[in-house]
Structure formats: C-alpha cells, structure tokens
Amino acid sequence: MLTGVAAVGAGLVAGSSHVPMAPRIGGGAGSRPTTPESALRALVAGNGRWRTYHERHPDQTRTVRRTLVAGQHPFAVVLGCVDSRVPPELVFDQGLGDLLTVRSAGEVLDEAVLGSIAYGVLELRIPLVVILGHQSCGAVAAAVRAAEGGPRLPGHMQYLVDQIRPAIDRGLRGAARIDAAITANVRLVRERLAAEPEMAAKVAAGALAVVGARYELTSQRVRLVR
Ligand SMILES: [Zn+2]
Predict the structure, then answer these.
(1) For 40, which of 8, 110, 144, 159 could close a Cys bridge (C-beta 3.0–4.6 Å)?
(2) Sign of CA pseudo-dihedral 191, 196, 201, 202
C-alpha cells in the first residue's frame, strides 16, 4: 500500500506537462476512490487540471446537489492552512461531497482539528489524509519571527506559534529558514497525526495513508513532502 502511495506521490513530485484525464469521479458513492492510492491519484489529477487552467469544476451540478442531500462520501481529508490563496477544493479541482476539509492557520492541530479528522477517517471511512502546507505561509513566518525574539502574539495566536516552533531549523536564516520550517511543519503535523492510535491502526491495516504535501503559489503545483 505504502509503495503504491509512494508511486502516485512520485507523480505528484515529478508532475507532467500533459493534462491528466482521469475518469470523472462523480457525486455518488459508487464511483468514489476507495483506496489511499486511488484517492491520491484523483487529487494529483485535479491539481494537474488546476495548474494548467483546465479545471472541470466537478460535482457542482443540480443533480449532484440533489444527490448529496441523502448523504456524503468524501474520498479524502485535507488538513490545510486558512490562507485564502489555498482553498483545497480549488487547487485539487474538486466539488461538493468530494473533500472533507479542515483548516487551521499553519495546519496546526488541536482537539477540534483532531476530532474533525477522526470523524472523516473513523466515521466516514475516508482512506486518505493530506496535510497541505504552502509556500509563503504567514503562520509559519510569524512563528519564525517569534522564535527570533519577536513579541508575544496577541490572543490565541500565540498557541499557533508555540505549535509550529519545533519545526524551525535554527541553523538556517531568513527566507530559507521560513521555507524549511513550512516543509518541516508539514512533516511534524503528519507524524503527530499518524501517531494517533486509531490512525496508526488504520495505516497498519492498509486502509489509510497520511501524507504531507506543499502547495507552491508560484507554480500552483502540489508536491508530496517525504
Ligand atoms: Zn498558511
């Protein structure tokens, strides 16, 4: 299973210039991706459409909206940042009922985020969780500034900074430090999440993959974070 996800992920990293023509996913339960590999493949294809300006805006028709009244069968959980430039449904070219999205600044975990992801994985049996960081993440930049001696952040924002701090590489400086922290933070969140006993059991059984990824604002490409 992991090999399969890695192989699909390699496509995510390498990318290809042609527009992926994966079969339409559809709004019903019957045609959903049901494995970690097929779910990741659908996201790779969707991001390929997005970054080449060939979006299909799937699953938004009158019929789909009506079908979804009866229930939802999303095929991937995406934990992304709150940043307005990285809406998961857009950058993966998905529609209604396709993704269970959880968003917090810097993809930071707390009880509500963990509970929301657990709902998707354990109740809705979603086979894939993607932790989606992104280039120029303001939350990570704020955490780096705070670690460099900046003032305490007001209100609940200090919680975000405290959670991201372990991802900061003190051997780096400036923009390189922020960029490395963005990637390291994705790894950190992925490891914390994958260590949750219920998640670990699903991963061990081959029923779930928890993968990290980064969205680049400049290329609009999502690439896997190993
Ligand atoms: Zn961000």
Answers:
(1) 8
(2) negative
